[in-house]
Amino acid sequence: MAQNDLETRHLETLDRDLGRFSQLERAGVALSRGLVAPGVALAFVLLAGLGAMLAFGQTSNTLVVVMAAVIGAYMALNIGANDVANNMGPAVGANALTMSGAIAIAAVFETAGALIAGGDVVGTISRGIIAPESIGTQSIFVWAMMAALLSSALWVNLATWIGAPVSTTHSVVGGVMGAGIAAAGFGAVSWPTMATIAASWVVSPLLGGLIAAGFLWFIKSWIIYRDDKIAAARIWVPVLIGIMAGAFAAYLALKGLSKLIDVSFGSALVLGAVTGLATWLICIPVIRRQSRGLENRNKSLKVLFGIPLVVSAALLSFAHGANDVANAVGPLAAIVQASASGSVTEAVSIPLWVMLIGAFGLSFGLFLFGPKLIRMVGSQITKLNPMRAYCVSLSAALTVIVASWLGLPVSSTHIAVGAIFGVGFFREWDAERRLRATIGAAPERPRLAAEERRRRKLVRRSHVLTIAAAWVVTVPAAAALSAVLFWVLSSIGG
């Protein structure tokens, strides 16, 4: 009997020890899982530096180019983590795409856009903000571009960490401006260019929000609030898909495919009109067939908008990769050009290995760190369904077209987030309007208390304030950080 008790106590002690080991093992696995993403990112950055060393060759400037490639890879990772959420967030928030599906689609189309059509806006990033001839020597120009790249990468990294989608374009612009001022004074900066960029802080989100709210009003008025929703959808959903197809055809011609096809604004509009008309005619029988058997309720309408929403997210990713890859490789391309030729005034050409760093950095950054911002953009600002998310995507394409027509530089981040705000605030206004109409029809119905009405707001005010503050301080913060980094780097580099 005593022997059995001893064996029982021994087994219980062994079970407790094994339980402790199991807890330690689970904690170790959880800790290591959190280190996987930074580890993969570090490996990519080091590979980018190694690739730059092999591609550039052994010269006196090789170390500088390797440093720039490492920083450029770091910036590309941050752009993928922060900026791509604007394209995929609405589709994920509307449950039209899973997180893994969104990441896979975005990775493919971002990379394709960067490699196929990217690079044309690099000149603006590397030379349009400051005059290279005002900088002075080649080494000062290189350190200025290096400081701009590093400061913008650090700022975007901080914004991603606090959950604020910011404009990576404005981050790089601020970095280049700050380094230019530190290197050559205020006269080196193209202030008219900076004024138009500052104007886009207001124009981009306001225009995106108004267009998105306008399309949501149209969908509610002509489809959702109709007695026969399915019959109304058969008429208007093909029209909306045709508008989307036409808008994206013009969008890609203007912003994404200019490297392959030289088209004027008028030609892009004609291309968009033809594409939209053809898509509308094709979609009429498709939507009619897809809507057979659907119940006359709002949930059925979500089915009709699902596939167009996924397609629009993919096209936005392609155009984003084509345009915003310049934010990562613009200063890097300028550094490579200046290091190879010794001149700071020659036109910047983009080697293939530089584009590869930018393209794959976008995809790796999205895959490793993107889900946090995708969730924030897709579901934490306001609740999205396929119709609302469709309005956001359509607004992004149309806003870029309108801004190109007006000659205004705009931020894809500001447009997309502004469109989400527009959808949310329109829903608040529409709900308030319908509530007043209901109370007017039934005076005996009690009014909600002011505190309860604030609680029922459909847009989270805390996110509005955080994002707006991040937008306002992006350029000055990146500029100040860049100026400090330029002084440090130039003093170290001699």
UniProtKB/TrEMBL annotation:
Family note: Belongs to the inorganic phosphate transporter (PiT) (TC 2.A.20) family.
Major subcellular location class: membrane
Pfam families registered for this protein in UniProt: PHO4
Superkingdom of origin organism: Bacteria
Transmembrane regions listed in the UniProt entry: 35-56, 62-80, 92-117, 140-160, 172-191, 197-219, 231-254, 260-282, 303-322, 350-369, 389-406, 412-429, 464-489
Keywords from the UniProt entry: Membrane, Phosphate transport, Transmembrane, Transmembrane helix, Transport
Protein name, UniProt field: Phosphate transporter
Compartments it resides in: Membrane
Membrane topology (UniProt): Multi-pass membrane protein
InterPro entries the UniProt entry points to: Phos_transporter (IPR001204)
Organism: Paracoccus rhizosphaerae
